[in-house]
Structure formats: C-alpha cells, structure tokens
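Appendix B, Record 12. Input sequence as logged:
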Amino acid sequence: MRLVTYNVNSLGARLPRVLALLEEHRPDVVLLQETKSSPHAFPHAELAEAGYLAADQSGGRWAGVAVLGRADLGVDDVTVGLHGEPDPDQARWVEATVGGITVVSVYVPNGQRVDSPQYASKLVFLEAMSDRMAALAAAGPVVVGGDMNVCPTDLDVWDPAALHGGTHATDPERRRFRGLLEAGYSDVFRALYPDDTGYSWWDYRGGAFHKGYGLRIDFLLASREIADTATAAWIDREFRKPTRVPESKPSDHAPLLAELDLELQPGPSATDDPAGVVAQRTTGDAQPEQLGLM
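Logged structural output:
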C-alpha cells in the first residue's frame, strides 16, 4: 500500500503537480489538505481521468481536505467533519475506506498566536482528533495523515529558538500530539528514521527551502496493528521545486509518502469507469453541502 499526504496550498493552482505526482508514484491513497476549493469546483473529472475517485470536504477559499483512492479500489464509507471540533464549517476532516483500510485526511488549525482564540481552538481540535482516532483504531486498521501544524520535538524544527514563544512547538501542542500516538498510533516516518529531520514545509521567503530552514508538520500516523508493516517513508522534495512541474508554482509543502506491506481489497465503489460512480455518503458535524464525492 502506497500512501501520500500533501498540503497542496490550493488544488486549483497545484492540480498539474498533483496529476504529475499521481502519474509518477501511482499511489493507492492520496490525502490532500488546503485544497481551497468550493464544492462545485473540486476537480473530480480531472482526477477521474487520472484513475482516482475522490471524497472531499470543501470550504471555499480556505482549508479543504480530500481523500483520493485508486478507482479499482474504490472510495467508500465517507464521513466529513470531526465531532467536537470547534469550527465545523472550516472543512478540516474527511474519512473514507479505500481497499479495506480506513484513511483520514486532516488539516489541523495553524493556531496563529499563543494568545489568540485560534490557538485555543487548535488545542480543542487536537483533543477531538485524539478521541476520534482512538475510536477508529479500536474498530480496525487506519491511517490518519495530513498537515498537523505541530513539531513534536526539536528535531522537527530547523531552529527551535526561532519558534520559541510561537505556535507549533509549545508544550500544550506537543502534549496533544503525543495524545494522538497514545490513542493507538505510530508516526510512520519517525519510527523508521528516528534521527532524520524529515522536513515537509519551508517558508516561501528568504530562500528557506534551499537553506534547509524547514519544519516537519506533515504526518502519516498508522494504527499499531498495521504500523509494523511500514517498510519506507520519504519526503519527495522534487515537488517543492519550481522546476519539477514548470507550469505551476510549488506548494510550500512537499508530499510525504509511505509504503505499508498490506494487501488491499476492492470496495463496493471500485470501478473501471470512475466518472460514473457516486459512493455512499455520511456526514459528521459538517453540513451536507460541504461534501463532494465522485
């Protein structure tokens, strides 16, 4: 099973890169964040042409998440919204079953400043996330991936002093991230590579990417019953470079990929004609009109 999580920072602007990623890596599952797409503008047709079904929670200009699955595996049992999240209209959580595995794409709030209401909301979101992840892990194999906007340790920050007093590396955020792991999960990349930085985000400004001034804030968290099947994980830095797909500017994130030694089984929506499929849909706290699925 090959998975990708990728904060695209606007799917409309980055669609050529996503399509190039699908062609090059042929992943089974792709988890997207910051799609910044309206429900009606989500590019289902283009993704279907590439051989993927998509379930999305789209919220317009900001946020937005999606799960893509190979059409021959299907995308089923879709749930959008996270019970207990403080701002359910922000389009930050979508679950689906692909090939018999539950997969989740999540975009955790940034938090802005530690003295802001947004920071308090971020902590509440992480707590709600931990509760849901525990329930999912108790039910079967699951992978939760996305931009979690937390650097769990100082190894995940190019300069810990630079973030001192700011978000992403505070003790409350780190405690809540540990709570996600304690809910029954393993950080796939860190488990395989305990001493590598694994940065997945670099500021657009100041040549941060070329200088190596990055953060590790994108994760694939696998439930413990399948975590030991992980054989590889890596950041595809090429997709952070403007030259990789010249017709589109890169996101400020690079995709994180992982391989798990799992055999996937086609689900009810599996098809050779993805453009004609509408799978079953359910909703969590989000409004039904925010969910798109084809």
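The domain at 2-293 is CATH 3.60.10.10 (Deoxyribonuclease I; Chain A).
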